[in-house]
Design brief:
162 residues; mainly alpha; 4 helices
Amino acid sequence: MWQFGPTGTKVLKTVHICCVTLWMGGLLAWLPLINSMELTDLGASRTTYQNLRTIAWNVIGWGGIGSFFTGLLNGMLTHWGLFRHRWIVLKLLLTIGMILFGMFYTERKMLVNLSLLDQGDPAILQDPLFLTNHHTLQLVVPMQLIVFFLIVLISVVKPPLR
């Protein structure tokens, strides 16, 4: 099977690290937005949730897609091999889990809250569904960052190649 040479491998690894940084940076940008938000002003809350959506779709999403595909290419087209090492398989599974969790859980909670805010009723800020979704986001974003830290830790402390 065809593989990248040393230069191609370095370029691919660089693009992969940039994509992971983009993805993680987007999540880090969510932290102050979701945690410092005062749920007293409908307009400010709506603007914050619009910013969360913008970051999710333009930073986190592209970073996640890019890191997934560059990770696959790293596994398939370099000497690492996609299934040769358990630590690579673990990183792949964690990455797939993070993408699915982000798309189908975290983003859904954010979009539901944004649609509630778009109704324009200030009482929505005290709605149990809105508050549950908001507090859930405050919990899951740091949890996602912990998983990111674990993925990076696995990359750093991996066993040496044979």
